[in-house]
Amino acid sequence: MLICFLTLVALIPTSSSINPGVKVRLTEKGLEYGRVLGMAALQQKLKSIKIPDFSGKTRVSPIGKVEYSFSNIQIVNVGLPQSSVTLVPGTGVGMRITNAVINLNGNWRVKFLRWIRKSGSFSLNVNGLTISTSTGIKSDAMGRPEVSSVNCAASVGSARVKFHGGDSWLYNLFSQSIDKALRKEMEKKICPLVSKAVSDLNPELKTLNVVAKVDKHAEIEYSLVSSPTISKPAIELNLKGEFYNIGNHQEPPFTAAAFSLPQQNNKMLYIGISAFTANSAAFVYNRAGLLTLYITDDMIPKSSPVRLSTRTFGVFIPEIAKRFPGLMMKLLVKAEKNPITTFEPNNMTIQATAAVTAYAIQPNGTLSPLFVLHLDTSVTANMVVSGMKLVGKVGLNKMSVTLGTSYVGQFQVRLLDNILQLLMKTVVIPIVNVQLAKGYPLPALGKMSLQNTQLQVLKDFMMIGTDVQFKI
After folding, report:
1. Domains in the chain, CATH or no CATH each
2. How far apart are CA 252 and CA 108, in angstroms?
3. Residue 446: what pLDDT?
4. Which residues, at least 6 apart from 72, have a Cβ–Cβ distance to it below 8 Å?
5. What tens digit of pLDDT does each residue of 7-65 get?
6. Which of these, 332, 418, 328, 340, lies nearest to 377 by C-alpha position?
7. Beta-strand relationship, 389-406 and 329-335
8. DSSP strands (E only) in 252-300
């Protein structure tokens, strides 16, 4: 019951043939952590059981008919020494608790021989309590997980009552006659409590960031694209893992390729993020016009010997110095198509193609076009997990330049290689890294934090292996 490990899962059973952009696997280690959390929570829930006042009649030899009542029944101790959580392949999740112990105190009152009335306190020891339950999972109207108790069975091995006060030695003679009534009352109370404990998880599950806002331009959708795969060693979830423009969900002109997580189990949780997710981000930011940048001289470090002026560029292209002497320049860098991210073992690379248009800034502020270059660049990305976000940093790997259009006559493009590389390293890449350092939210639930995190870059995806901690 209290299958608290579901708070590690963030799952929504749905049906679709779409390949996931993100995969999540909960291992046996994670399941065990969930069991420990579940037992602590269940212990508190069991202590909250309210046993109503109840009364009855029984016949005890040689006294005859005895009328009894019990009131103010309080649970004072709960022991759950043995428990287990199991995955039923293709079905769901089950939990079993055995040899549980519950101790209660309360008040008693009896009437017998028509006129004798006595009262006092009692203690009740419930031993050999066994609880078996299974939990079902479905999606709510918003596409978030919703859990419910599918079935439950509870049995009490023994319920031994002992009376205190008055002639309690006499009343203990017929205590066995009411043990059965108390045992049945406990059994009736436990399964409704289990059902409520499971349903109490739903507010927590609704904290799942099915749609996680990245910034004012983009968000990531983490809904499931298929039902969870339940096997003996793990639960695996297939999440959409796709970036969208906020308020305008348009699918990119490419789809996610299938990928599989390796069979590792030394961490509680594994998260696989495919190239599709990264490429959908590039598509979104390009649509939002954010892969466009104006570079001006004030963006270049003051210590740089290269200035963005017709004097500097005139050294390599004399026609510029001749026709536009002593003017400052401006460069427009604009992506010509969506950057493409690829994952190879231990290597994440981004290929980007951009057009660079150079302008001379006239004294009246108008721009005179000088030339258009085409840049093919390759950058290497390093990603790390920080808190509940994936953050990155890129560095220039290589770059090639070709001439598109010249308004100042023909010139040797290779003469500008060093200047363009300097601008990439000192202006463009630092701006990109500022954005990457803001991070991108991982699928998360409630007060969840990641511990002992490791990140691997594999073929076609990166994988985060992590332990998980929840603040209860």
Report:
1. 29-203 (3.15.10.10), 211-470 (3.15.20.10)
2. 72
3. 72
4. 53, 106, 107
5. 333 333 344 458 999 999 988 888 888 888 878 877 887 787 777 787 877 777 777 78
6. 340
7. unpaired
8. 269-274, 292-296
- Taking CA 30 as the corner, what is the angle to CA 24 and CA 33, rounded to the nearest 5 degrees? 150
**CA-derived radius of gyration, the chain:** 35
CB neighbourhood size of 146 (10 A): 18
Residue 446 carries which side chain, given as an amino acid letter? G
Q: Can you tell me which residue has the tokens 């779409």?
A: 18
H or E stretch covering 42: helix 28-47
Can you state the angle between helices 175-199 and 28-47, rounded to 10 degrees?
130
Is residue 281 a contact partner of residue 340, using CB atoms and an 8 Å limit? no
C-alpha dist (Å) from residue 265 to 6, 258, 445: 18, 21, 21
Beta bridge partners, 120, equal: 108
Tokens 């269940």 belong to residue = 42
Neighbours of 394 (CB within 10 A): 21
Sign, CA torsion 22/26/27/33: positive
- The C-alpha atoms of residue 126 and residue 158 are separated, in whole angstroms, by 6
For residue 468, give the nearest of 270, 271, 268 by alpha carbon.
268
The angle subtended at Cα 172 by Cα 171 and Cα 178, nearest 5°, is 90
What is the model's pLDDT at position 318? 94
Helix (H, G, I), strand (E, B) or coil at 276: helix
Rounded CA-CA distance 126/182 in Å is 9
Nearest Cα to Cα of residue 125 among 165, 79, 82: 79
Locate 102 and state its tokens.
């519950």
